[in-house]
């Protein structure tokens, strides 16, 4: 039998009593400081006043580790020998001695200013430049292009006119469907109405054919003059994206006054294939749609010491003020369908500018144009009136001795401040 001195046994026992609790659970998990280590962890360390101290290495010592296994952690200390040698936690990826640094939360934050925007982890230039910004390029033919994206001038897309004319009261809530030929943005619609008593009406734009689809937009119009077959414009509150080949429906209701929507019983080119009316496929309410395409619009290019205007949706005038400030004056143009003429030989057309001006423009030029592909010799007089910052009204009258005209007459216009 072998005996141990009592004092030695006491030291051993005291050491065991003061050591942290070390357990090995049946799940295979090892716990330090806990009798019930988490079953999902290989090692569960629990302490209320102590932390985990991992190996601390200098940058040179960390890089000297040969083929570090994936997931290895070290805390790098000491002064950095290169700017990328930051003090802190590094981990090995397991790929060609590659180490990655874990930056702290302060270093991970990104604040964007001066035109920069941040979406998730992506930083891009897309806001307003609030500080002086200089672009330097020493190449011989270098250039700087500043360009905005927006809608171009509205273009006539669909025309539903018919031939022999009649009308139906808006109290019957008539509707007409149409199909865009291109995918772009619907800006406004023209309708031809008999205004018996001035008042107000509402246009509702639906998805699909008829009034059972989703409501896409609500348009309001107030009539200010009575007359027959008046061409009135219904601007959308905001450009509406439409898809080529899909059906859309415009329904009209009146909230005041008395109005009738003109329709055609027979279309010279055959029934309108892009839709039908609430009355049936052989009756077509008079309607024209206008669409604009999204793309690069006004821009300025600085190249070879010259200033150029580029990427414009239409012509623009370059203004240089007395103080040297450079700007542009927006030049807009378009066309509206006047359509077949009424018995009086006189028609009124309301035009809405695609982009409103700060004040009424000083120059508005209009001309009547015969329907494309026809040989009509009709002569017309056009008078511009009621010019405002948002649009104008034009009177169109046949002056060659006749009254009625059978063509889908167009009114071309150009305006400049």
Describe this structure in words.
The protein has helices at 6-18, 59-63, 105-108; strands at 22-24, 30-32, 43-45, 56-57, 73-76, 88-92, 99-101, 116-119, 122-125, 143-151, 155-160, 165-169, 175-178, 184-207, 215-222, 227-242, 248-264, 284-285, 287-292, 294-303, 306-310, 316-320, 326-330, 332-339, 346-352, 363-369, 380-385, 391-398, 409-416. By secondary structure, it is mainly beta. Strand 6 (88-92) and strand 7 (99-101) form a beta hairpin. It is 5% helix and 47% strand. The protein contains three helices and 29 strands. The model is unreliable at 1-17 (pLDDT under 50). Strands 11, 12, 13, 14, 15, 16, 17, 18 and 19 form a nine-stranded antiparallel sheet that branches.
Work out the radius of gyration.
38 Å
| Alpha-beta classification | mainly beta
Name the overall outline: elongated
Report how far the terminal alpha carbons are from each other.
117 Å
Mean pLDDT across the residues is: 79
Number of strands: 29
Helicity, as a percent range: under 10%
Major sheet size, sense and barrel closure: 9 strands, antiparallel
Range of strand content:
over 45%
């Amino acid at each position: 039998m072998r005996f141990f001195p009592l004092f030695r046994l006491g030291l051993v026992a005291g050491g065991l009593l003061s050591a942290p609790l070390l357990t090995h659970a049946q799940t295979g998990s090892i716990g330090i400081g806990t009798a019930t280590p988490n079953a999902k962890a290989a090692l569960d360390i629990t302490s209320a006043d102590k932390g985990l101290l991992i190996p601390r290495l200098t940058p040179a010592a960390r890089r000297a580790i040969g083929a570090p296994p994936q997931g290895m952690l070290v805390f790098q200390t000491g002064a950095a020998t290169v700017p990328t040698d930051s003090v802190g936690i590094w981990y090995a990826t397991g790929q060609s001695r590659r180490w990655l640094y874990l930056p702290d939360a302060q270093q991970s934050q990104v604040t964007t200013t001066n035109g920069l925007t941040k979406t998730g982890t992506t930083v891009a230039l897309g806001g307003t430049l609030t500080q002086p910004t200089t672009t330097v390029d020493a190449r011989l033919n270098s250039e700087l292009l500043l360009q905005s994206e927006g809608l171009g001038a509205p273009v006539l897309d669909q025309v539903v006119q018919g031939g022999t004319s009649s009308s139906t009261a808006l109290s019957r809530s008539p509707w007409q469907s149409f199909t865009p030929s291109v995918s772009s943005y619907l800006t406004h619609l023209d309708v031809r109405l008999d205004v018996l008593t001035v008042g107000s009406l509402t246009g509702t734009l639906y998805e699909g054919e008829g009034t059972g689809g989703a409501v896409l937009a609500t348009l309001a119009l107030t009539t200010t003059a009575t007359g027959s077959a008046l061409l009135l414009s219904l601007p959308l509150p905001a450009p509406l994206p439409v898809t080529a080949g899909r059906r859309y429906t415009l329904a009209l209701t009146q909230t005041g006054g008395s109005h009738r929507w003109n329709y055609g019983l027979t279309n010279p080119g055959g029934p309108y294939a892009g839709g039908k009316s609430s009355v049936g496929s052989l009756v077509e309410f008079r309607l024209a749609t206008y669409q604009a395409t999204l793309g690069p619009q006004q821009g300025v290019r600085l190249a070879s010491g010259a200033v150029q205007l580029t990427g414009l949706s239409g012509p623009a005038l370059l203004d240089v003020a007395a103080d040297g400030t450079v700007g542009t004056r927006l030049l807009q143009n378009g066309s509206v369908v006047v359509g077949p003429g009424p018995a009086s030989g006189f028609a009124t057309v309301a035009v809405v500018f695609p982009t409103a001006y700060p004040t009424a423009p000083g120059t508005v030029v209009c001309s009547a144009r015969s329907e494309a592909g026809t040989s009509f010799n009709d002569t017309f007089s056009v008078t511009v009136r009621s010019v405002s910052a948002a649009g104008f009204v034009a009177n169109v009258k046949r002056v060659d001795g006749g009254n009625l005209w059978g063509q889908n007459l167009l009114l071309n216009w150009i305006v400049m401040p």
